[in-house]
Fold this protein.
Amino acid sequence: MTERKIRVRFAPSPTGPLHMGGVRTALFNYLFAKHHGGDFLLRIEDTDQSRYVPGAEEYIVESLKWCGLIPDEGPGFGGNYGPYRQSERKELYAGYAQQLIDNGWAYYAFDTPENLDRLRAEAETDGQVFSYSQHTRMSLCNSLSLSVAEVEARLKNGDTYAIRFKMPEALEVTEEDMIRGSVTFNTRELDDKVLFKSDGMPTYHLANVVDDHLMEISHVIRGEEWLPSMPLHILLYRAFGWEKSKPRFAHLPLILKPQGKGKLSKRDGDKLGFPVFPLQWKDPETGETSRGYREDGYFSEAFLNILALLGWNPGTEQEIFSLSELSEIFSLERVVKSGSRFDPEKARWFNRSYLQMKPAAEVALLFRPVLSEKGIDLPDFKIVSIIEEIKDRCDFVADIWEHGYYFFEAPTEYDEKTIAKRWKTETPEQMDAIADLFGTIETWEALSIKDHFSTYMNHKGWNFGMVMNPLRLCLVGGNMGPDLFRICELLGKDETINRIRKAIERKKV
RNA sequence: GGUCCGUUCAUCUAAGGGUUAGGAUUCAAGAUUUUCAUUCUUGCCAUAGGGGUUCGAAUCCCCUACGGACUGCCA
């Protein structure tokens, strides 16, 4: 058992885009596999054709690729345990369902969905909850309550049926969850879940257990919402006689909405003020578009880093991790038990940290398209120099424009507050003098400009603040930006002088 | 309603019987930047409540409260 090859799977159903909780589940599976030198598989659980959403599977694959969580096996990724789409494994499941009927762990249920709906509605009006279970099964229409002859007749007649699990009576099922510890359920309280649907497809429970067994999955790492069905799955392994090779279970805490109640869900879409999806998603039915982390300008490394620290911690004070670093130190023991609220502010901070770590040349490559879109073309070394100056005030690549547009185009308006505070009657004359001074400078380089400027200022006896601030206003349109002389240098001599003259003109009017 | 899971600053979390309960984000103040942002320093802020066990409990046990998940021929 301990020598068993580690194999884990991420098993989403293609009912829409993956949300960040799903990505985190994939991440933890990936990290666990890589940490132990095991395999990470992707399996598409598309057993409910009525909920199938076109494009969802592609979306899932693209999301994993963006994050760098590349499956070792899966649809389109190869592997010896395929197919990895449950719809393509359809034929397989009926035999397993039959096996359970034969050995008495399951039974045919002929009840119509309408009838069950009615029973549920009735129970509800009485303030009760209907459940198809050991307490009610004998009064319903199934191969346990009907005579053998009747069952055979119905089967022969082609009546539709579902196959339900026959939950044992009053049996304690205890399982050691790798995150939660020992968890015990009593089968008395559990219902008879449908394993095989009347449409010929298995339900999640059957397909999941059968495939995990066939694919030799060693650890099931999934969201906490699956904890209540763990006893059913345990019992299914028992019913099939697969207990010896049964995987270990680990139920991850949920990611909660930042405010309000409940877990984060796909339906939260765009309403929260931050993306819940890794990638932008366009709903094929409504045409509605939901934003994604990628399109919002997050680095995938930052996105993953945020997710890694949501419900897990390294036990040290380190917060920034690469994927390979995470693989090295990740362990299920350090996953927390309680659900966590996602904090968009901290997500921003993570992205900022990654942006700051990247060399200016790399950021320039990412910023280039923004400039191209605006029809701006500058030599690379120039862009890199500019980015070096303003990178540390940005959280996202897109912020570079916001914080440094004046490097690329002259200001068209000037900040009123700064004008009121700094633009005095003597200012135009002073600016004019500075422009003249600049015209005489031969080595157009920050240090040299500063030198000339200082000497001139001292000679004139002018107040530095009352000249530098208006000068800054002329060049950038406000009271922001990096070192003034660096700006002059990067702008170039002619442009600097032009901007000063232009500002004086504008102020006159 | 029932079953199961959970509960340390506003948020993410550390501390696996003995610490002034630590860090990060946010927020606030100061310093630096002759501007702004950054950066740095400092500060504010927490063991849900009640009972036990123990010399000693955030840590172990019980109860209460609160939160969450599940309760479909969905996954």
Notes: DSSP finds 19 helices and 13 strands in chain A.
